[in-house]
Amino acid sequence: MNYRYLGQTGLPLSELSLGSWRTFGESISEETADELMTLAYESGINFFDNAEVYAAGESELVMGRILKAKAWRRDSWCVSSKVFWGGDEPTRKGLFRKHVIEACHQALERLQVDYLDLYFCHRPDLDTPIVETVAAMTDLVRQGKILYWGTSEWTARDIALAHAAAARDNLVAPVMEQPQYNLFTRECFEVDYSRLYKEVGLGTTVWSPLSRGELVGHYLQEKGGKFVVSKQGKAWLKQAGLPPGYEARVHKVAEFAGVARELEITPARLALAWVLKNSNVTTAILGASNTDHLKENLKAIGDVSLLTNVVMGQIESIFQTSPLPEETFR
Asked: Active-site residue 115, yes or no?
């Protein structure tokens, strides 16, 4: 495992981390969740991502029980939670002081820990002044209940406003953002945040590096030297709830799978390696439903070296999703 510093902090996080969205407490058993966390930890992963809204809190309960049962030193791993969607009641949704503080206490209880290493504002709250959120997070940091705080899917402008409020009022500024980043979703990460990496040292814990499974290519089969959608894949695509125009996306993934085959790796590993190729990525969060998938995807760390300029150019010519000037890839 390789480790990268979280922005300008001194916290080293594993390049790949394990998340619990749509799995823990929902689509997999607690036994499987235990196996995944054990494999992840023994493979060098030191960050486990969670949120109050995942499986309506059950995800944190499952992770908390597993962490409690392990003999892992508390100073050898990091765990996160996120605040925004705590429930249907008005006082359980948003980033105002009451919910930020209470959600933190509830996450600590569910995860059975004394403090959260990372605490994220899960979405921007347009009804709460940013300075109120920054002040609440600052209180939690100074009380030792969280060590670092950050945002998820915030605009660059709002992150900059949070830093301005922190500087003006002697508060603690956010140090990380958790955006979606993959071959289909790039502009925010590569363009909108570009100045923040340099000016405030923004760290990133990116989610959905495989575009919610699209880039895994499990709906494909090789036929006549090319990849096409299998019968089972057609059924999966109908149920996956993909965005309009997904047929064109599927065609791109099929071409992408051909590049992966030439490199003798899976499309998932190539997609993960592509994400890790970006030095502004601190860690890419993996989701997994079984240990075989996790074992295979962990190999992506060693695949980054395969991404030469030629390979990067091939990938770019397939997806054509770069928001950056074409000469970037020459």
From this structure: no
In a domain, 246, yes or no: no
**Which is catalytic among the residues 3, 41, 54, 197?**
54
Checking phi first, is residue 201 left (phi over 0); if not, alpha (psi -120 to 50) or beta? left
Cβ–Cβ < 8 Å for 306, 265: yes
Q: How many domains does the chain have?
A: 1
Q: Is residue 305 part of a domain?
A: no
What is the extent of the structural domain holding 22? Answer: 3-213+278-288
Q: What is the pTM of this model?
A: 0.94
Tens-digit pLDDT profile for the chain (330 aa)? Answer: 999 999 999 999 999 999 999 999 999 999 999 999 999 999 999 999 999 999 999 999 999 999 999 989 999 999 999 999 999 999 999 999 999 999 999 999 999 999 999 999 999 999 999 999 999 999 999 999 999 999 999 999 999 999 999 999 999 999 999 999 999 999 999 999 999 999 999 999 999 999 988 898 888 888 877 888 887 887 777 777 777 777 888 889 999 999 999 999 999 999 999 999 999 999 999 999 999 999 999 999 999 999 999 999 999 999 999 997 655 544
Q: Is residue 74 part of a domain?
A: yes
Residue 256 lies in a domain: no
Alpha helices (H) along 43-122: 58-69, 97-111
> What percent of the chain is helix, strand and coil (3-state, nearest 5)?
50, 15, 35
Asked if 132 and 97 count as a contact pair (C-beta separation under 8 A), the reply is yes
40, 63 contact by CB (below 8 A): no
Structure tokens at 159: 């992150």
Tell me which amino acid residue 123 is.
R
DSSP state of 121: E
